[in-house]
Q: What sequence folds into this?
């Protein structure tokens, strides 16, 4: 689901409700101290659960002494973030 490439965490599964729990857990397990970039360039499907997962990773970051940024956020997810008023909560790489 998530593959590490240096400080980049490549998300390789659709960001859908069916995968949300697994992605949340995989992302939390992948966190290390320092900056991490979750890269969504290989994600071809996403729904509103993507925002829940991303916010969950952000919430978990301090306990891992990590900071998180997001790269290649799918356009639909960005539109939903704008609609829900949470765009500023998603630091971008």
A:
């Amino acid at each position: 689901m998530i593959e590490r490439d240096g400080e980049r965490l490549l998300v390789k599964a659709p960001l859908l409700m069916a995968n949300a729990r697994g992605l949340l857990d995989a992302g939390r397990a992948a966190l290390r101290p320092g900056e991490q970039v979750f890269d969504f360039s290989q994600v071809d499907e996403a729904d509103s659960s993507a925002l829940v997962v991303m916010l969950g990773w952000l919430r978990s970051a301090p306990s891992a002494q990590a900071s998180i940024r997001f790269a290649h956020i799918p356009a639909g997810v960005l539109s939903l973030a704008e609609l829900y008023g949470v765009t500023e909560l998603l630091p971008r790489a």
Notes: The first helix runs from residue 20 to 30.
